[in-house]
């Protein structure tokens, strides 16, 4: 096992923020994690698991030991009458896995095409897009306990998935008695892709594509192409403009709170959830406060989608994590003052 010192992280976080890891170990096998845990100088250090770095704001050099997940491999685990169960290692690029499954004729992940990041991060925040969340296709995962080195598996219930949430985001005990933030490294994720696949097309942007193309019964591959096109039109490509996707979660409010806001702001974009609560479009709230295109230093609000904060300085003159967080706080304050709603950031702030 090699401990790399002062490892530059700019190419390993999708904002392109400059920071270094004081100590970093590449995880290319489970044995690499076991070696860290068996090492008296490393075992007790706080640890940060780094995948694609696509949901992270680095506000300084990273003191915890960084475990950089480079586990590779994808395979079909099982085919039953009902489903294909496929497995991908945590270090695989998410979009490559989506493409690989579709290329093999296994539909189900197409609505989540082009989400940046690695497979290992996908259950952590229960990624989702265009009407499908990871939990809808999830079978199980394997992970290593970073204190004991023991491997364990979790099913969907044990992951306690919620909207952009799971047991891996909580430090204290969750509803099922687990809280695994910083305590485990996910090694493999399995997906159950059902043979009775039906397209998920309820999302407005996809309905528009159906009208434009005249295709009412698209294949999974067509949906994949549509989602790629929609995302490319709306969201900045992190390889060109650094960003961490949606910076805030879409907040939920009660019907009463929503009625109160509608009385003042009739155009507020909102959706009724299954439990009767209302989800508000955070992008709309931020946009309504006039934030599109505004900047703090080299951090800015994306002109085409106010929910995304971007690095305006590129690789050569990048924003700092401090600038991103100052901008985020100013947005939170103005949305709170105007709507009485507290926006919660989505990325992990390190
Ligand atoms: N809107 C505005 N102004 C803006 C941005 C949005 O008025 O500047 C309005 C839009 O017109 C639309 C509504 O707000 O009516 C929602 O916007 P959009 O459809 O773009 O989706 P979103 O709520 O902003 C969510 C996810 C995205 C996911 C898309 C598509 C969250 C926090 N974000 O965005 O996920 O790709 O839906 O399903 O749930 C991510 O998590 O990083 C991410 C990109």
Task: Tell me about this structure.
- The chain has about 350 residues and is an alpha+beta fold.
- The protein folds into three domains: about 5-70, Uridine Diphospho-n-acetylenolpyruvylglucosamine Reductase, domain 2, CATH 3.30.43; about 75-195, Uridine Diphospho-n-acetylenolpyruvylglucosamine Reductase, domain 3 (2-Layer Sandwich); about 245-350, Alpha-Beta Complex (Uridine Diphospho-n-acetylenolpyruvylglucosamine Reductase, domain 1).
- It is about 25% helix and about 25% strand.
- The protein contains eight helices and 20 strands.
- The strands form six sheets. A five-stranded antiparallel β-sheet has the order 6-7-12-10-11. Strands 1-2-5-3 form a four-stranded mixed β-sheet, with helices on one face.
- Strand 15 and strand 16 form a beta hairpin.
- It is globular, with a radius of gyration of 21 Å.
- The model has no long low-confidence stretch (mean pLDDT about 95).
- Bound molecules: uridine-diphosphate-2(N-acetylglucosaminyl) butyric acid.
- Uridine-diphosphate-2(N-acetylglucosaminyl) butyric acid binds next to strand 13 and helix 7.
């Amino acid at each position: 096992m090699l401990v790399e010192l002062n490892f530059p992280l700019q190419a390993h976080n999708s904002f392109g923020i400059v920071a270094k890891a004081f100590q970093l170990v590449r995880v290319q096998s489970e044995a690499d994690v076991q070696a860290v845990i068996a090492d008296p100088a490393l075992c007790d250090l706080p640890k940060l698991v780094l995948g694609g770095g696509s949901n992270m704001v680095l506000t300084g050099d990273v003191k915890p030991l960084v475990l950089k997940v480079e586990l590779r491999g994808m395979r079909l685990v099982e085919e039953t009458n009902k489903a294909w169960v496929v497995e991908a290692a945590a270090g695989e690029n998410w979009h490559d896995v989506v493409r690989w499954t579709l290329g093999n004729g296994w539909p189900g992940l197409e609505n989540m095409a082009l989400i940046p990041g690695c497979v290992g991060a996908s259950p952590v925040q229960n990624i989702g897009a265009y009407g499908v969340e990871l939990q809808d296709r999830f079978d199980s995962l394997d992970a290593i306990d970073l204190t004991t080195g023991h491997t364990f598996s979790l099913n969907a219930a044990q992951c306690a998935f919620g909207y952009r949430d799971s047991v891996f985001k909580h430090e204290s005990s969750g509803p099922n008695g687990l809280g695994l933030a910083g305590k485990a490294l996910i090694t493999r994720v399995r997906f159950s892709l059902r043979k009775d696949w039906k397209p998920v097309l309820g999302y407005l942007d996809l309905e528009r594509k159906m009208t434009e193309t005249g295709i009412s019964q698209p294949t999974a591959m067509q949906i994949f192409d549509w989602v790629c096109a929609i995302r490319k039109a709306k969201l900045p490509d992190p390889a060109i403009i650094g960003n961490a996707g949606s910076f805030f979660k879409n907040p939920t409010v009660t019907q009463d709170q929503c009625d109160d806001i509608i009385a003042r702001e009739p155009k507020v974009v909102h959706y009724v959830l299954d439990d009767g609560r209302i989800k508000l479009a955070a992008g709309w709230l931020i946009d309504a406060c006039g934030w599109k295109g505004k900047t703090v230093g080299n951090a800015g609000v994306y002109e085409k989608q106010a929910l995304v904060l971007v690095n305006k300085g590129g690789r050569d003159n990048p924003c700092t994590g401090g600038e991103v967080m100052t901008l985020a706080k100013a947005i939170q304050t103005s949305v709170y003052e105007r709507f009485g709603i507290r926006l919660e950031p989505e990325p992990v702030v390190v």
